[in-house]
Amino acid sequence: MAEVLVLVDHVEGENKKSTYELLTAARALGEPSAVVVGPAGTAGKLADGLKAHGAAKIYVAETDSTDFLTPQVSVLASLVESTNPAAVLISVSADGKEIAGRLAVRTDSALLGDAVAVSPEGVTHSVFGGAYIAEAKANTAHPVITLRPGSVEVEQADGAGAEESVEVPAAAGRSATVTAREPLAGGDRPELTEASVVVSGGRGVGSAENFEIVEKLADSLGAAVGASRAAVDSGYYPHQFQVGQTGKTVSPQLYIALGISGAIQHRAGMQTSKTIIAVNKDAEAPIFEIADFGVVGDLFKVAPQLQEEIVKRKS
Amino acid sequence: MNIVVLIKQVPDTYSERKLDGSDGTLDREATDSVLDEINERAVEAALQLKEANDGTEVTVVTMGPDGATDAIRKALSMGADKAVHLSDAALHGSCAVQTSKALAKLIGTVDGGFDLVLAGNEASDGRAGAVPAMVADILGVPALTHAREVTVEGGSVSVTRETDDGVTKLTAELPALVSVNEKINEPRYPSFKGIMAAKKKPVATLSLADAGIDASEVGLANALSTVTSSQPKPPKSAGEKIEDEGDGGAKIAAYLVAQKLV
Ligand SMILES: Cc1cc2nc3c(=O)[nH]c(=O)nc-3n(C[C@H](O)[C@H](O)[C@H](O)COP(=O)(O)OP(=O)(O)OC[C@H]3O[C@@H](n4cnc5c(N)ncnc54)[C@H](O)[C@@H]3O)c2cc1C
Ligand SMILES: Nc1ncnc2c1ncn2[C@@H]1O[C@H](COP(=O)(O)O)[C@@H](O)[C@H]1O
Question: Where is this region: Disordered (chain B) (predicted)?
Fold first, then answer.
């Protein structure tokens, strides 16, 4: 069976959930080989998780290079050449998209970006914030596919996980150098793109302090917190929580929008949510057009009451 | 310093965006087009560097249909010096790899070469968000992407890169490519003077042959990937809507329980 190269997405010595999604998706195309690129000692911490999700091989490229993203590209490019894989799978993130694009250019491969499903025939995309579903196929060998986190249900599988160390080839062109890195503090809440429940606040929340109402409701539901761009631009909530066209795309089981009007650019990031609840004091707000259940009312009254009810049910 | 800004005309996100049912490409007839919002910021960043560095020339480069002249006018009105526009029917349906290769060639046609290429970090239409890094890879120059801040000093460029995963400081020797994010600046409005001046600025409209690109390297028929089908998803319809009468929160809770969501 052909190999499928999976670029391992890891942070602080742990595999991200998206890595397991890639390994699960890869099994539909062939035999998954995990590719670990990171500083010395990285692969040892990741191997068990990779094996438990079906990695037949683990290619280990350990390097202390400060070159920005190009080591990943060079390693994958040399593996594409040596293994002629059925496909290369990378998860959608700022880094993932960049690595994938460069790899496609270097290996003359089709780039199938932002897939929500993969099959031997091709990939499925959700376009324009879910307004369209499109199918696409590669016209080249070893297509480079980026998969949107949260679109595949993780399944465990036993993999041999045979480790093989690989050299990091010298960079093909000049690289940017990393001089400092500050990873975002994750906090205790689930990651926005991985959460099954998301509670978001908009300009209607009114201030950074008031966002506590959104956070409290989210915590009662074990949810991630999101925000509209207006809320982010007004300084109520940090940028990395923005949902929408220029923010994150989320597709949880449940999305609760508090004080969000539902502009088309916001909807682009959340309208594929399975169930949408909206609270807005304006009965004409467009968010109600896509809400399964809408309450026309003051979020400062409705959200705390909802939170109390949830807490009551849980106790 | 010579700065090249990659700009793209995109469908206005306030209007409804459609895919062409026959070939899965963007239906440009059906939508209003504008200069991509983040590209306005890339132009602004270029103009700020020009203001800080005497003798800087800003060239905007775009590949796209005839209508892209509106985007070019906007950038020139803001203060860019000249423009190069690759417009050729054969480009229709080009994939990201082809687009990047064509853009790299197009950049090569700019008089005087470049010290810095500026781009948006992602366009609002396709959200590929990969073209800038791909172009840099082809040009063999460093890519400093998703910049929230950019400084050029003594032949090198440094950026503060901000993404969902955190903040990274990057540096590289020029020539290099930088893509900017939506937080980098507030783009200026073209002044009346700027709009008038733009009318006299040079715009080179190139065909594929002019740019030294072979027709077999671009276009739908030669694309490395093909959209095989596209369908509008039935829009989500509105469900129940109630007026809060003091029990709105409780009613939501009851709905969630009924749907087995809590
Ligand atoms: C290129 C581009 C990209 C964009 N990308 C994004 C994006 O990624 N994400 C995004 O969200 N937006 C994006 N936008 C912005 C978008 O157009 C809207 O401006 C934004 O979504 C509005 O946010 P909002 O709903 O919080 O604010 P508003 O539209 O101001 O709505 C606030 C709502 O709160 C309600 N409200 C006020 N007080 C209360 C209360 N006490 N109780 C209940 N309801 C109350 C009001 O009735 C109103 O409906 C983008 C725009 C452009 C041009
Ligand atoms: N056809 C094009 N012409 C000029 N610049 C482009 C084109 N396509 C993409 N770009 C540049 O690449 C950036 C990211 O686009 P994308 O990768 O399509 O999301 C844009 O903001 C532009 O700066």
Answer: 226-246
CA neighbor of B8 nearest in space, from B145, B125, B178? B125
CB pairs under 8 A between A and B: 273
CB A201, CB A214: distance < 8 Å: yes
Provide the domain limits for residue B152: 2-222
Structural domain spans, chain A? 3-165, 197-314
CATH of the domain at B59: 3.40.50.620
pLDDT by position in tens, chain B (length 262): 999 999 998 876 555 566 666 666 666 555 566 788 899 999 999 999 999 999 999 999 999 887 788 899 999 999 999 999 999 999 988 999 999 999 999 999 999 999 999 999 988 666 568 999 999 999 999 999 999 999 999 999 999 999 878 899 999 999 999 999 988 999 999 999 999 999 999 999 999 999 999 999 999 999 999 999 988 877 778 899 999 999 999 999 999 999 999 8
Q: How far is A50 from chain B (nearest CA, A)?
A: 22
ipTM: 0.83
Q: Is B225 close to A313, i.e. CB distance below 8 A?
A: no
For A161-280, strand residue ranges (E) read: 162-165, 177-183, 197-201, 224-227, 254-258, 275-280
Rounded to two decimals, what is the model's pTM? 0.84
**Helix or strand run (H / E) with residue A4:** strand A3-7
Q: d(Cα B136, Cα B28) in Å, to the nearest integer?
A: 28
In a domain, B131, yes or no: yes
Q: Could you tell me if residue B202 is inside a domain?
A: yes
Selection from B137, B139, B138, B183 nearest residue B159 by Cα = B183
Ligand with minimal distance to B126 CA: 2
Considering the domain boundaries, does residue B248 fall inside one?
no
Mark yes or no for CB contact A245/B13 under 8 Å: yes
- List the CATH code of the domain at A197-314: 3.40.50.1220
Kindly identify which residue of chain A lies nearest to residue B249, measuring between CA atoms. A306
| Angle subtended at Cα B248 by Cα B244 and Cα B250, rounded to the nearest 5 degrees | 160
**Measured between CA atoms, how close is A282 to chain B, in angstroms?**
10
User: Is residue B101 one of the residues assigned to a domain?
Assistant: yes
Q: Please tell me the total count of domains within chain B.
A: 1
